[in-house]
Amino acid sequence: MSTFLYDDTFDEYEDAFNARQIRRAERRPKKLKPDKRAHDKPVKDIIGGLSDDPSDTTGFSMTYQPSQFEAVWLKDSLHPLFDKAIIMDVLASIKGGKEASVYRCEAHPATGAHLVAAKVYRPRMFRNLRNDAMYKEGRAMLNSSGKLIKESDMRVMKALAQKSTYGDQVAHTSWLMHEMNTLNLLYEDGARVPRPYGTALNAIAMDYIGDEHTAAPPLSHVTLDSHERTGLFVDVMRTVDTMLKHRLVHGDLSAFNILYWRGQITVIDFPQVVSIDSNSVALKILERDVQRVCEYFADQGVTGTSAYPCDPVALMDGFRRRHFRRLSRYREADFSRATLPEDVED
Fold first, then answer.
1. Mean pLDDT, the chain, as a whole number?
2. Stretch (H or E) spanning 61
3. What residues are paired with 115 via a beta bridge?
4. Using CA atoms, how far apart are residues 3 and 109, in angstroms rounded to an integer?
5. Alpha-carbon dihedral 176, 336, 191, 214, rounded to 10 degrees
6. CB within 8 Å of 321: residues ≥ 6 apart
7. pLDDT given for residue 334 in this prediction
8. What three-state secondary structure class fits 126?
9. CA angle at 166 for the pair 160 and 169, rounded to the nearest 5°
10. b/e per residue 262-272 (b: at least 16 CB within 10 A)
11. In sequence order, what DSSP letters do the residues of 273-328 get, joined into one string?
């Protein structure tokens, strides 16, 4: 079974270097000679610039052998998880892409787990998220502790408005912490999601789904046995139901974001979660999520159950009855008029 690695040239690590150079320049302004350019720097200097501590005193080594740029960025991103006694070693890369890379890590004994997954976001992931305004509507800004950033914090609000380097980092951290808070909430309520263990500035540690050799594949790569299809479909819809109970919608649910392992499913990837109480297109986003999941399971021959029919229209009727009654008639009208941007793509 493959580990679903994608082509990745690590252009983003150069972005990280440039961002750090900007911060240093803001602190210690200095003039450069006219013919001096950042791209003239030796590779060793660029690599050193990727880490806050070029001497690399993080205290952990990696069994996984990344490229030279990835290695420094990875250690810089993950060393807080080592310091928090969550991981002890990075064993392998199990998924790579433009949004994030996921690594199989040896867990610290304090976690009670053998392996954990470390999801490390690309620097440009949230800055270049397509139609991000659709997901940001009604969403609070969170700090690195997952707490609300008050609008009265003028320093942060100004940085966000100006889209400065600091503002970009605050926005990036907020997206990540929304995912972490959602995982905590759903895991505690028994939903089919990974158990979260902790965060770093650019990464989340959570349950690793798979074994020492193989990561769990997404449903999009799986043909299910006939005896398990309906049960797994119900498990997915129960997780959707649990999210709606907490007034949340996944925002990007499909067979690509549902893992399958030994007869069980695990729903992943929650940074784009939206609130049905504060986002005017939440219902439309939910409809899209439900449509995608139903298409996959219908292709597998699933018809569903009386509680969860494999029919997007019937499912949405049930979700409306159970979870949208709190909304005023005015809000219901808002939902019915709302439309998603036409250029939303997977």
1. 79
2. none
3. 106
4. 25
5. -60
6. none
7. 54
8. coil
9. 85
10. eeebbbbbbbb
11. -EETTT-TTHHHHHHHHHHHHHHHHHHTT--B-SSSBS-HHHHHHHHHHHHSTTS-
Angle at 245 between CA 241 and CA 246, to 5 degrees: 120
What does the pLDDT look like over 190-242, one tens digit per residue? 999 999 999 988 899 999 999 999 999 999 999 999 999 999 999 999 999 99
Per residue in 83-110, pLDDT tens? Answer: 999 999 999 999 876 678 899 999 999 9
What token pair was written down for 124?
């440009």
- Comparing C-alpha atoms, which of 288, 275, 293, 292 is closest to residue 340? 288
Beta-carbon contacts of 58 under 8 Å, excluding residues fewer than 6 positions away, are 75, 76, 79, 82
Rounded Cα distance, 286 and 182, in Å: 16
Pull the structure tokens for residue 282.
Answer: 């939440």
**Assigned superfamily of 219-337:** Transferase(Phosphotransferase) domain 1 (1.10.510.10)
21 pLDDT exceeds 90? no
The values of phi and psi at residue 273, to 5°, are -55, 140
Total Cβ atoms within 10 A of residue 25: 12
Cα three-residue angle 311-312-317, rounded to 5 degrees: 100
- Contacts of residue 332, defined as CB under 8 A and 6 or more positions apart, other chains included, come to 324
Residue 285 · residue 274 · CB < 8 Å: yes
Percent of all residues in the chain with a pLDDT value above 90, rounded to a whole number: 51
Domain 11-207, architecture per CATH: 2-Layer Sandwich (3.30)
DSSP 221: G
Tell me the C-alpha to C-alpha distance, in Å, between residue 45 and each of 41, 65, 103, 170. 6, 20, 26, 27
| C-alpha closest to that of 87 among 216, 182, 197 | 197
Which amino acid is residue 13, in one-letter code? Answer: Y
Contact indicator for 76, 200 with CB cutoff of 8 Å: no
Q: For the chain, give every domain's residue range.
A: 11-207, 219-337
Residue 333 CB contacts under 8 Å (≥ 6 apart), including other chains = none
